[in-house]
Amino acid sequence: MPELDKDEVVEKLIKIAKKNLKPAKKIENLPTHANWRFEISPRNLRTISVILLLSAIFSGMYWWNSKIRVNEQPDLIIPASESVEQIDQENIAKSEVVVYVSGDVINTGVITLPSGSRVIDALEKAGGLAKNGKIGDNNLARLITDGEQIDFSSNSNPNSKQTSNNAKKSSGCINLNTSTLSELDSLPGVGPVLAQRIIDWKESNGGFKSVEQLSEVSGIGKSKYSTISAKSCV
């Protein structure tokens, strides 16, 4: 709809009135201000009606154009604040795990992997096994946890796993991230079903960061948590 100029519209309406309204005849012996400027005739009434109609139409057009201009105002763009950037950085940090790969691999050292990676991903990131290297006791399908060490030593003691298990039993601590189903089953108040739930929770959440997370496993209430956590570690 074209833009409207109020002054121009008023000027056109005045021109129409001057052109079409017939002046009234002056009455003698009356002061000037008492004489009507226009006579009340059918022609003048029609002209006045037309002027009023045009005024209403132009007023509606002007109101509509004003409404369109308001609706077309662009939305405000709010720049990202530093706090949002900090949140994004924290989310990136939580989506990664850092582990130390040692032993008979091509590239030993600290590596960064996406959260939810498994031991086999760490082995591939380290370049794979070196010549004559062995997987050893490592479970390639195990989910890795942040800060752990994965050792691929071919000259490690074959009885190291048994020694480690004995140490766990002697200290009364069962590692929630590395223990098997049977080892978790040995915890007080834990049966095969609950032990499997603990393993499922570990695999779904990238491992236990603390023993307190045991309370998030289905079937572990306050009383059972206090019993199991006393014999657990990460």
Describe this structure in words.
- This protein has 234 residues and is mainly alpha-helical.
- Helix content is 44%, strand content 9%.
- The strands form two sheets. Strands 2-1-3 form a three-stranded mixed beta sheet. Strands 4-5 form a two-stranded parallel sheet.
- Helix 1 runs antiparallel to helix 2 (42-71).
- The protein starts with 5 loop residues before the first helix and ends with a strand.
Write the layout of secondary structure elements.
Layout: H1 6-20, H2 42-71, H3 82-94, E1 96-103, E2 109-114, H4 119-125, E3 149-152, H5 160-171, E4 174-175, H6 181-185, H7 192-204, H8 222-229, E5 232-233
Parallel strand pairs: 1-3, 4-5
Antiparallel strand pairs: 1-2
Over all CA atoms, what is the radius of gyration? 44 Å
Mean pLDDT: 75
Contiguous uncertain segments of 5+ residues: 156-163, 166-170
The number of helical elements comes to: 8
Shape: elongated
Based on DSSP secondary structure assignment, what is the total number of beta strands? 5
Can you summarize the main beta sheet? 3 strands, mixed
Helix fraction, binned, reads: 40-55%
Biggest sheet: strand arrangement: 2-1-3
Distance between the termini: 72 Å
Alpha-beta content class: mainly alpha
**Beta-strand fraction estimate:** 5-15%
Order of SSEs: HHHEEHEHEHHHE
